[in-house]
Amino acid sequence: MARISDKAVVERGARLADDVVVGAFAYVxxxxxxxxxxxxxxNATVLGRTTVGARTHIFPLAVVGAAPPGADDxxxxxxxxxxxxxxxxTVYAGTDAPTRLGIDNLMMIGSTVGAGATLGDHGIFANxxxxxxxxxxxxxxxxxxxxxxxxxxxxxxxxxxxGYARVDxxxxxxxxxxxxxxxxxxxxxxxxxxCGFDDRDVRALKNAFRELYGGAASDPERRVVDxxxxxxxxxxxxxxxxxxxxxxxxxxxxxx
Length: 256
Description:
Elements: E1 3-4, E2 9-10, E3 15-16, E4 21-22, E5 27-28, E6 33-34, E7 39-40, E8 45-46, E9 49-52, E10 57-58, E11 63-66, E12 76-79, E13 84-85, E14 90-92, E15 99-101, E16 106-107, E17 112-113, E18 118-119, E19 124-125, E20 130-131, E21 136-137, E22 142-143, E23 148-149, E24 154-155, E25 160-161, E26 166-167, E27 175-178, E28 183-187, H1 189-194, H2 199-213, H3 222-229, H4 236-251
Parallel strand pairs: 1-4, 2-5, 3-6, 4-7, 5-8, 6-9, 7-10, 8-11, 9-12, 10-13, 11-14, 12-15, 13-16, 14-17, 15-18, 16-19, 17-20, 18-21, 19-22, 20-23, 21-24, 22-25, 23-26, 25-27
Antiparallel strand pairs: 27-28
C-alpha cells in the first residue's frame, strides 16, 4: 500500500502504485496516475490529467500538471520513467496537445516546461532552464543555467545550450549554441564521447560544422549543405545533421 503522509492530500480517484511515497503537505489530484517506485516529496503538487512514470522523483515545491495561465481545461501531462523533477520546477499540462517528458530526464531547480512541450530521453537541464510551450527537445540535450527555448522551437539531439542563451529558432543536432541572438559555436564533442561516439564520428562532425558555420555563425552555408548532401560516403551522423537542416528548410523553419 502507498505510504501517504497523514498531512498530504490525495484526492479520491487518484491511482497510486503500492510502493509510492507521498510526503507531508503534498497534493495529488483526482486524475493523477503514479506508477511504481515514485516519490512525491513534501509540498510537491501533481494535478491535472497527469501520468507519472515509474521511479520518478518529484522534489519539494515542484508543480507537475498545472494548467497554463488562462486555460479552462486542466490539460494533460505524461512523464516517462526515472525522471527527476527538482525543487521549484513547474511542468505545465498541455491543452491542445499533451506535455510529454521521456525517460531519465533531470530538470534542475526553478526550471519550467511549457504547455504542450515535448522532451525526449536522457536530458539534463540546469537551474532555471525555460522551455516554452510547444517546444521540442530531442534526446541527450544538455543546458547550462538560465537559457530560454522559445515556443515551438526544436532543439536537436546531443546539443548543449549555454547559459543565458535565447534559442529563438531551430537548433541542429550535435551542436553547442550560445548567445542572444543564438549562434552555433561548435560541436558538443565531450557529450558525444560520453554517449559512445568514437573519435572518427566526432572528427567528421567537427569538419562538417566548420564548413557549415565557419566557427560561430547563425545560419549554415547553404551551398555547403548542398555539396555535402551529394557525397555518397558521408558519415551517418553528418547525414543526420544535414537531414535536420534540410527538414527545417523544406518546412520554412529557420535553423541556427
